[in-house]
Amino acid sequence: MTETLPQGATIGILGGGQLGRMLSAAASRLGYRCHVYDPGANPPAGDVCAQVTTAPWEDVAALNAFAASVDVITFEFENIPTATLDLLEATRPIRPNRRALAVSQDRLTEKQFLRDLGLMTAPFAPVSDAESMAAAVAQIGAPAILKTRRMGYDGKGQARIMAPADADAALAEMAGADAILEGFVDFSHEVSVIASRGLDGRVAAYDPGENLHEGGILRRTTVPARLTGSQRADAVLLAGRILNALDYVGVMGVELFVTQQGLIVNEIAPRVHNSGHWTQNGCTVDQFEQHIRAITGLPLGDGHRYADVVMENLIGDDMDRVPDLLTERDVALHLYGKPERRAGRKMGHANRIVSRG
Ligand code: AMP
After folding, report:
1. How far apart are CA 348 and CA 315, in angstroms?
2. Per the domain annotation, does 117 fall within a domain?
3. What is the pLDDT of residue 1?
4. What's the whole-number average pLDDT of the chain?
5. Ligand 1 atom having least distance to the Cα of 184
6. pLDDT digit string (tens) for 170-180?
7. Measured in angstroms, how far is the CA atom of residue 266 from the centroid of ligand 1?
8. Cα of 189 to ligand 1 centre, how many Å?
9. pLDDT greater than 70 at residue 238
10. Domains in the chain, number
11. Are residues 78 and 218 in the same domain?
Protein backbone atom coordinates (compact mmCIF):
# COMPACT_ATOMS: atom_id res chain seq x y z
CA MET A 1 0.00 0.00 0.00
CA THR A 2 1.20 3.48 -0.76
CA GLU A 3 0.42 6.45 1.36
CA THR A 4 -2.18 8.77 -0.14
CA LEU A 5 -2.20 12.47 0.59
CA PRO A 6 -5.41 13.33 2.51
CA GLN A 7 -8.04 15.76 1.30
CA GLY A 8 -7.06 19.38 1.93
CA ALA A 9 -3.32 18.60 1.84
CA THR A 10 -1.09 21.12 0.08
CA ILE A 11 1.03 20.50 -2.99
CA GLY A 12 4.01 22.79 -3.53
CA ILE A 13 4.73 23.63 -7.16
CA LEU A 14 8.05 25.12 -8.22
CA GLY A 15 7.32 27.43 -11.14
CA GLY A 16 4.06 29.22 -11.78
CA GLY A 17 3.71 29.29 -15.56
CA GLN A 18 0.86 27.77 -17.55
CA LEU A 19 1.85 24.23 -16.58
CA GLY A 20 1.71 25.17 -12.90
CA ARG A 21 -1.61 26.85 -13.53
CA MET A 22 -3.15 23.75 -15.10
CA LEU A 23 -1.64 21.51 -12.40
CA SER A 24 -3.20 23.73 -9.72
CA ALA A 25 -6.61 23.56 -11.36
CA ALA A 26 -6.40 19.77 -11.57
CA ALA A 27 -5.23 19.52 -7.95
CA SER A 28 -8.17 21.60 -6.74
CA ARG A 29 -10.60 19.26 -8.54
CA LEU A 30 -9.13 16.43 -6.47
CA GLY A 31 -9.54 18.31 -3.20
CA TYR A 32 -5.96 19.54 -2.81
CA ARG A 33 -4.56 23.03 -2.33
CA CYS A 34 -1.51 24.35 -4.17
CA HIS A 35 1.25 26.69 -3.07
CA VAL A 36 3.25 28.02 -6.02
CA TYR A 37 6.83 29.30 -5.70
CA ASP A 38 8.06 31.50 -8.53
CA PRO A 39 10.71 34.23 -8.71
CA GLY A 40 8.55 36.28 -11.11
CA ALA A 41 5.71 38.49 -9.92
CA ASN A 42 2.10 37.58 -10.80
CA PRO A 43 2.73 34.12 -12.28
CA PRO A 44 -0.11 32.64 -14.39
CA ALA A 45 -0.63 29.90 -11.75
CA GLY A 46 -1.22 32.56 -9.09
CA ASP A 47 -4.78 33.13 -10.34
CA VAL A 48 -5.87 29.60 -9.50
CA CYS A 49 -3.82 28.40 -6.54
CA ALA A 50 -4.31 28.90 -2.81
CA GLN A 51 -0.98 30.58 -2.11
CA VAL A 52 1.92 32.13 -4.03
CA THR A 53 5.44 32.89 -2.87
CA THR A 54 7.32 35.39 -5.01
CA ALA A 55 11.00 35.06 -4.12
CA PRO A 56 14.31 34.16 -5.75
CA TRP A 57 15.50 30.54 -5.88
CA GLU A 58 18.29 31.53 -3.46
CA ASP A 59 16.02 32.93 -0.71
CA VAL A 60 16.60 30.42 2.11
CA ALA A 61 13.99 31.87 4.46
CA ALA A 62 11.31 31.89 1.74
CA LEU A 63 12.19 28.35 0.69
CA ASN A 64 12.01 27.07 4.27
CA ALA A 65 8.64 28.73 4.82
CA PHE A 66 7.40 27.27 1.53
CA ALA A 67 8.55 23.76 2.44
CA ALA A 68 6.96 24.02 5.89
CA SER A 69 3.60 24.91 4.32
CA VAL A 70 3.37 21.97 1.88
CA ASP A 71 3.12 18.17 2.08
CA VAL A 72 4.83 17.26 -1.19
CA ILE A 73 6.76 19.26 -3.79
CA THR A 74 6.64 19.01 -7.56
CA PHE A 75 7.81 21.30 -10.37
CA GLU A 76 6.69 22.53 -13.76
CA PHE A 77 10.12 23.11 -15.29
CA GLU A 78 13.46 21.38 -14.93
CA ASN A 79 15.99 24.16 -14.58
CA ILE A 80 15.74 24.67 -10.84
CA PRO A 81 19.09 25.31 -9.10
CA THR A 82 20.55 22.29 -7.29
CA ALA A 83 21.02 24.17 -3.99
CA THR A 84 17.30 25.08 -3.98
CA LEU A 85 16.34 21.44 -4.38
CA ASP A 86 18.84 20.31 -1.71
CA LEU A 87 17.28 22.66 0.78
CA LEU A 88 13.69 21.69 0.00
CA GLU A 89 14.40 17.98 -0.12
CA ALA A 90 15.79 18.06 3.41
CA THR A 91 12.24 18.39 4.74
CA ARG A 92 9.76 17.40 2.02
CA PRO A 93 9.59 14.75 -0.72
CA ILE A 94 10.19 16.03 -4.24
CA ARG A 95 8.31 14.10 -6.94
CA PRO A 96 9.50 13.23 -9.54
CA ASN A 97 12.84 12.54 -7.84
CA ARG A 98 16.16 14.35 -8.15
CA ARG A 99 17.71 11.76 -10.44
CA ALA A 100 15.06 12.38 -13.08
CA LEU A 101 15.79 16.08 -12.85
CA ALA A 102 19.55 15.64 -12.98
CA VAL A 103 19.30 13.40 -16.04
CA SER A 104 17.08 15.77 -17.97
CA GLN A 105 18.84 19.00 -16.93
CA ASP A 106 21.96 18.07 -18.87
CA ARG A 107 21.65 16.95 -22.48
CA LEU A 108 24.89 14.96 -22.27
CA THR A 109 23.88 13.03 -19.12
CA GLU A 110 20.47 12.49 -20.69
CA LYS A 111 21.86 11.02 -23.90
CA GLN A 112 24.25 8.76 -21.99
CA PHE A 113 21.43 7.56 -19.74
CA LEU A 114 19.25 6.74 -22.76
CA ARG A 115 22.08 4.92 -24.51
CA ASP A 116 22.82 2.92 -21.35
CA LEU A 117 19.17 1.83 -21.36
CA GLY A 118 19.69 0.49 -24.87
CA LEU A 119 17.59 3.20 -26.55
CA MET A 120 18.54 4.96 -29.77
CA THR A 121 19.61 8.62 -29.74
CA ALA A 122 21.19 10.96 -32.27
CA PRO A 123 24.98 10.51 -32.47
CA PHE A 124 26.53 12.95 -30.01
CA ALA A 125 29.81 14.29 -28.67
CA PRO A 126 30.62 16.74 -25.86
CA VAL A 127 31.94 20.20 -26.76
CA SER A 128 33.56 22.64 -24.35
CA ASP A 129 36.15 24.48 -26.46
CA ALA A 130 37.61 24.79 -29.97
CA GLU A 131 39.59 21.57 -29.62
CA SER A 132 36.67 19.38 -28.54
CA MET A 133 34.54 21.11 -31.19
CA ALA A 134 36.98 20.10 -33.92
CA ALA A 135 37.02 16.52 -32.61
CA ALA A 136 33.20 16.44 -32.41
CA VAL A 137 32.79 17.74 -35.98
CA ALA A 138 35.31 15.17 -37.20
CA GLN A 139 33.37 12.41 -35.44
CA ILE A 140 29.77 13.48 -36.13
CA GLY A 141 30.15 15.32 -39.46
CA ALA A 142 27.60 17.76 -40.88
CA PRO A 143 24.78 18.60 -40.82
CA ALA A 144 24.68 18.70 -37.05
CA ILE A 145 23.22 20.77 -34.24
CA LEU A 146 25.23 22.31 -31.43
CA LYS A 147 23.14 22.66 -28.26
CA THR A 148 23.98 24.01 -24.82
CA ARG A 149 24.04 21.14 -22.35
CA ARG A 150 21.87 23.06 -19.87
CA MET A 151 19.06 25.60 -19.82
CA GLY A 152 17.88 25.10 -23.39
CA TYR A 153 14.17 25.15 -24.23
CA ASP A 154 11.95 25.81 -27.24
CA GLY A 155 14.98 25.58 -29.54
CA LYS A 156 16.95 28.22 -27.60
CA GLY A 157 20.70 27.76 -27.13
CA GLN A 158 21.03 25.88 -30.41
CA ALA A 159 23.07 26.48 -33.55
CA ARG A 160 22.90 24.50 -36.78
CA ILE A 161 26.06 23.41 -38.55
CA MET A 162 25.34 22.81 -42.21
CA ALA A 163 29.05 22.47 -43.14
CA PRO A 164 32.24 22.09 -41.06
CA ALA A 165 33.05 25.75 -41.83
CA ASP A 166 30.07 26.79 -39.64
CA ALA A 167 31.74 25.32 -36.54
CA ASP A 168 33.43 28.51 -35.28
CA ALA A 169 30.30 30.61 -35.50
CA ALA A 170 28.22 27.91 -33.80
CA LEU A 171 30.71 27.61 -30.95
CA ALA A 172 30.69 31.40 -30.50
CA GLU A 173 26.89 31.25 -30.13
CA MET A 174 27.26 29.02 -27.06
CA ALA A 175 29.00 31.97 -25.32
CA GLY A 176 31.35 29.69 -23.39
CA ALA A 177 28.62 27.32 -22.14
CA ASP A 178 29.33 23.58 -22.27
CA ALA A 179 27.60 22.06 -25.26
CA ILE A 180 26.81 18.85 -27.09
CA LEU A 181 27.09 18.29 -30.83
CA GLU A 182 24.26 16.15 -32.18
CA GLY A 183 24.20 14.53 -35.59
CA PHE A 184 21.19 15.61 -37.63
CA VAL A 185 18.50 12.94 -37.51
CA ASP A 186 16.74 12.27 -40.80
CA PHE A 187 13.25 11.81 -39.40
CA SER A 188 9.92 11.57 -41.19
CA HIS A 189 8.02 13.13 -38.29
CA GLU A 190 8.16 13.78 -34.56
CA VAL A 191 5.97 12.14 -31.93
CA SER A 192 5.85 12.15 -28.16
CA VAL A 193 4.58 9.84 -25.47
CA ILE A 194 3.08 11.27 -22.31
CA ALA A 195 3.58 8.55 -19.76
CA SER A 196 3.16 8.37 -16.03
CA ARG A 197 4.20 6.23 -13.10
CA GLY A 198 2.44 6.10 -9.76
CA LEU A 199 3.87 5.86 -6.26
CA ASP A 200 3.02 2.15 -6.41
CA GLY A 201 5.15 1.72 -9.55
CA ARG A 202 2.26 1.25 -11.96
CA VAL A 203 2.72 2.81 -15.38
CA ALA A 204 0.11 4.31 -17.74
CA ALA A 205 0.66 6.02 -21.07
CA TYR A 206 -1.45 8.11 -23.41
CA ASP A 207 -1.64 7.41 -27.11
CA PRO A 208 1.41 9.06 -28.75
CA GLY A 209 0.80 12.45 -30.37
CA GLU A 210 2.41 13.78 -33.54
CA ASN A 211 4.18 17.09 -33.07
CA LEU A 212 4.86 19.87 -35.52
CA HIS A 213 7.46 22.44 -34.48
CA GLU A 214 7.99 25.86 -36.03
CA GLY A 215 11.12 27.80 -35.16
CA GLY A 216 11.89 25.29 -32.39
CA ILE A 217 8.50 25.89 -30.72
CA LEU A 218 5.69 23.34 -30.67
CA ARG A 219 2.97 24.50 -33.02
CA ARG A 220 0.55 21.59 -33.10
CA THR A 221 0.00 18.10 -31.67
CA THR A 222 -2.26 15.66 -33.51
CA VAL A 223 -3.63 12.45 -32.02
CA PRO A 224 -3.52 9.78 -33.18
CA ALA A 225 0.00 10.12 -34.59
CA ARG A 226 0.96 8.47 -37.86
CA LEU A 227 2.49 5.28 -36.44
CA THR A 228 2.20 1.59 -37.18
CA GLY A 229 0.85 -0.63 -34.42
CA SER A 230 4.33 -1.87 -33.59
CA GLN A 231 5.78 1.65 -33.55
CA ARG A 232 3.00 2.71 -31.19
CA ALA A 233 3.72 -0.21 -28.87
CA ASP A 234 7.45 0.48 -29.11
CA ALA A 235 6.97 4.13 -28.16
CA VAL A 236 4.91 3.28 -25.09
CA LEU A 237 7.22 0.46 -23.99
CA LEU A 238 10.36 2.57 -24.25
CA ALA A 239 8.71 5.33 -22.21
CA GLY A 240 7.86 2.75 -19.55
CA ARG A 241 11.45 1.59 -19.54
CA ILE A 242 12.66 5.15 -18.88
CA LEU A 243 10.15 5.66 -16.06
CA ASN A 244 11.07 2.40 -14.35
CA ALA A 245 14.81 2.99 -14.68
CA LEU A 246 14.42 6.34 -12.91
CA ASP A 247 12.01 5.00 -10.25
CA TYR A 248 9.93 7.90 -11.49
CA VAL A 249 6.75 9.28 -9.93
CA GLY A 250 4.64 11.65 -12.03
CA VAL A 251 4.07 12.48 -15.69
CA MET A 252 6.90 12.57 -18.22
CA GLY A 253 7.05 13.70 -21.84
CA VAL A 254 9.27 11.59 -24.11
CA GLU A 255 10.01 13.22 -27.48
CA LEU A 256 10.80 10.85 -30.34
CA PHE A 257 11.95 11.07 -33.94
CA VAL A 258 10.33 8.55 -36.29
CA THR A 259 12.96 7.19 -38.70
CA GLN A 260 13.44 4.24 -41.04
CA GLN A 261 15.75 2.73 -38.42
CA GLY A 262 13.16 2.99 -35.64
CA LEU A 263 12.25 5.45 -32.90
CA ILE A 264 15.05 7.74 -31.79
CA VAL A 265 14.70 9.51 -28.45
CA ASN A 266 15.24 13.27 -28.76
CA GLU A 267 14.71 14.27 -25.17
CA ILE A 268 12.76 13.61 -22.01
CA ALA A 269 10.91 16.20 -19.94
CA PRO A 270 10.33 15.24 -16.29
CA ARG A 271 6.99 17.03 -16.06
CA VAL A 272 3.68 17.57 -17.76
CA HIS A 273 4.35 18.48 -21.37
CA ASN A 274 2.96 20.85 -23.95
CA SER A 275 2.40 17.95 -26.33
CA GLY A 276 0.08 16.38 -23.73
CA HIS A 277 -2.38 19.28 -23.56
CA TRP A 278 -4.74 17.45 -25.92
CA THR A 279 -5.55 15.03 -23.08
CA GLN A 280 -7.66 17.79 -21.46
CA ASN A 281 -10.33 17.21 -24.10
CA GLY A 282 -9.48 13.73 -25.37
CA CYS A 283 -9.30 11.74 -22.13
CA THR A 284 -11.29 11.39 -18.94
CA VAL A 285 -8.18 11.89 -16.80
CA ASP A 286 -5.88 14.47 -18.41
CA GLN A 287 -2.11 14.71 -17.93
CA PHE A 288 -2.42 17.34 -15.20
CA GLU A 289 -4.76 15.27 -13.08
CA GLN A 290 -2.62 12.22 -13.84
CA HIS A 291 0.44 13.99 -12.46
CA ILE A 292 -1.40 15.07 -9.33
CA ARG A 293 -2.72 11.53 -8.86
CA ALA A 294 0.80 10.13 -9.17
CA ILE A 295 2.51 12.47 -6.72
CA THR A 296 -0.29 12.23 -4.14
CA GLY A 297 -0.33 8.42 -4.21
CA LEU A 298 -3.74 8.06 -5.90
CA PRO A 299 -4.35 5.39 -8.55
CA LEU A 300 -3.57 6.55 -12.10
CA GLY A 301 -6.13 6.94 -14.87
CA ASP A 302 -5.58 4.35 -17.59
CA GLY A 303 -4.87 6.90 -20.34
CA HIS A 304 -7.79 5.82 -22.50
CA ARG A 305 -8.48 8.26 -25.35
CA TYR A 306 -12.09 8.84 -26.45
CA ALA A 307 -11.57 11.39 -29.25
CA ASP A 308 -9.19 12.39 -32.02
CA VAL A 309 -7.80 15.81 -31.13
CA VAL A 310 -5.63 18.49 -32.70
CA MET A 311 -4.00 20.77 -30.12
CA GLU A 312 -2.75 24.09 -31.42
CA ASN A 313 -0.64 26.49 -29.39
CA LEU A 314 -1.69 30.13 -29.41
CA ILE A 315 1.58 32.02 -29.62
CA GLY A 316 1.90 35.82 -29.51
CA ASP A 317 -0.49 37.39 -32.03
CA ASP A 318 -2.39 34.11 -32.43
CA MET A 319 -4.48 35.61 -29.63
CA ASP A 320 -6.21 37.69 -32.34
CA ARG A 321 -7.90 34.44 -33.40
CA VAL A 322 -9.56 33.88 -30.04
CA PRO A 323 -12.92 35.53 -30.95
CA ASP A 324 -13.23 33.24 -34.01
CA LEU A 325 -12.09 30.14 -32.11
CA LEU A 326 -14.74 30.83 -29.50
CA THR A 327 -17.45 30.45 -32.14
CA GLU A 328 -16.20 27.07 -33.38
CA ARG A 329 -18.31 24.18 -32.22
CA ASP A 330 -15.66 21.59 -31.46
CA VAL A 331 -12.92 23.80 -30.06
CA ALA A 332 -12.04 24.04 -26.37
CA LEU A 333 -9.92 27.05 -25.44
CA HIS A 334 -7.37 27.09 -22.65
CA LEU A 335 -5.97 30.58 -22.02
CA TYR A 336 -3.19 31.32 -19.57
CA GLY A 337 -4.19 34.81 -18.42
CA LYS A 338 -0.90 36.41 -19.49
CA PRO A 339 -1.57 40.14 -19.80
CA GLU A 340 1.49 40.87 -21.91
CA ARG A 341 1.60 39.48 -25.43
CA ARG A 342 5.06 38.86 -26.92
CA ALA A 343 6.29 37.21 -30.11
CA GLY A 344 7.08 33.56 -29.36
CA ARG A 345 5.25 33.62 -26.01
CA LYS A 346 2.77 30.81 -25.39
CA MET A 347 -0.50 32.55 -24.49
CA GLY A 348 -2.90 29.60 -24.60
CA HIS A 349 -3.92 26.61 -26.67
CA ALA A 350 -6.95 25.33 -28.52
CA ASN A 351 -8.02 21.67 -28.52
CA ARG A 352 -10.06 20.83 -31.60
CA ILE A 353 -12.06 17.61 -31.42
CA VAL A 354 -11.77 16.03 -34.83
CA SER A 355 -13.80 12.91 -34.25
CA ARG A 356 -15.16 10.95 -31.35
CA GLY A 357 -14.14 7.35 -30.85
P1 AMP B 1 15.08 20.25 -28.77
O2 AMP B 1 15.13 21.57 -28.06
O3 AMP B 1 16.30 19.43 -28.58
O4 AMP B 1 13.82 19.49 -28.49
O5 AMP B 1 15.00 20.62 -30.33
C6 AMP B 1 13.92 21.34 -30.89
C7 AMP B 1 13.57 20.77 -32.27
O8 AMP B 1 14.72 20.87 -33.14
C9 AMP B 1 13.20 19.31 -32.27
O10 AMP B 1 11.86 19.10 -31.91
C11 AMP B 1 13.51 18.95 -33.71
O12 AMP B 1 12.49 19.42 -34.56
C13 AMP B 1 14.77 19.72 -33.98
N14 AMP B 1 15.94 18.90 -33.64
C15 AMP B 1 16.56 18.85 -32.43
N16 AMP B 1 17.58 17.98 -32.44
C17 AMP B 1 17.64 17.44 -33.67
C18 AMP B 1 18.49 16.49 -34.31
N19 AMP B 1 19.53 15.91 -33.68
N20 AMP B 1 18.23 16.18 -35.61
C21 AMP B 1 17.21 16.77 -36.27
N22 AMP B 1 16.38 17.69 -35.73
C23 AMP B 1 16.58 18.04 -34.45
Report:
1. 7
2. no
3. 47
4. 95
5. 20
6. 999 998 899 99
7. 7
8. 11
9. yes
10. 3
11. no
